[in-house]
Amino acid sequence: MSVLGTGFRYDCEIIKPSGEIEQFTDFNLLPQVSIDHIVGLLRGDGTSPISSWFVGVFSGNYVPTSGVTSADLPVVVGESTAYSQATRPVWTHAYDAVSLVDNLASKAVFTFTAATTLYGAFLVSSSVKAGNTGVLLSIARFNTPKTMDIGTQFSVAAGITLVPTT
User: Fold this and answer.
1) What is the reported pLDDT for 98?
2) What is the number of other CB atoms lying within 10 angstroms of the CB of residue 161?
3) Phi and psi dihedrals of 31, rounded to 5?
4) Which residue in 54, 55, 56, 60 sits closest to 75, CA to CA?
5) 83-134: per-residue pLDDT in tens?
6) What sign results for the dihedral spanned by CA atoms 38, 44, 47, 48?
7) Separation between Cα atoms, residue 129 and residue 116, nearest integer Å
8) Using CA atoms, how far apart are residues 31 and 33, in angstroms rounded to an integer?
9) Distance from C-alpha of 164 to C-alpha of 166, rounded to nearest angstrom
10) Which residue among 31, 66, 91, 150 is the one 20 to 30 A from 123 at the CA level?
11) Cα 140 to Cα 6, 111, 151, distances in angstroms
12) Half-sphere exposure of 155 (CA within 13 A, CB side)
């Protein structure tokens, strides 16, 4: 028997226009809609597989709860759209054929066009910036808020490890 891990790990890197680099790791919450989606796939109850996932960031001082959904992203969560990419960056993931699914080889990158403070990041099935549809797979609040200046490049590698029991 194997167990799905407690959720996603977010490995982030900030590169400021000055060249200063900061790296940090935080962990997520799997909201109930995510758990329901995964269970639906396992049970074959008509839940459709989703082939593309996207990374978003939020600037609202929001603390994730199990009841959060993609409908909450624009207003309640406070998704940030102050970056140059036209859509949420795609989560281009790979499976290591053992236990890890992540996008470490192809991180999601945001280039900020306005100064903002980020409180967290998320994975969702819609690419639309400030969109409120799709399945919210994961949401992580950073341990400390992160300041993004104009021109700051922020990258996110998100992954989940499937851990066999011993």
Assistant:
1) 83
2) 16
3) -70, 165
4) 60
5) 999 999 999 999 988 888 999 999 999 999 999 999 999 999 999 999 999 9
6) positive
7) 16
8) 5
9) 7
10) 150
11) 12, 20, 23
12) 13
Other C-beta atoms within 10 Å of 115: how many?
12
Both tokens assigned to 57: 């960031």
Dist. CA 159–CA 69, nearest whole Å: 20
Q: What's the pLDDT tens digit per position in 39-78?
A: 999 899 888 999 999 999 999 999 999 999 999 999 999 9
Whether the CB-CB separation of 91 and 54 falls below 8 Å is answered with yes
- 3-state secondary structure string, the chain? CEEECCCCEEEEEEECCCCCEEEEEEECECCHHHHHHHHHHHHCCCCCCCCCCEEEEECCCCCCCCCCCHHHHHHHHCECCCECCCCCCECCCEECCCCEEECCCCCEEEEECCCEEEEEEEEECCCCCCCCCCCEEEEEEEEEEEEECCCCEEEEEEEEEEEECC
Write the single-letter amino acid at 40.
G
Burial 47-66 (b: 16+ CB within 10 A, else e): eeeeeebbbbbbbbebebee
Token pair 């959904």 in the structure block, residue: 69
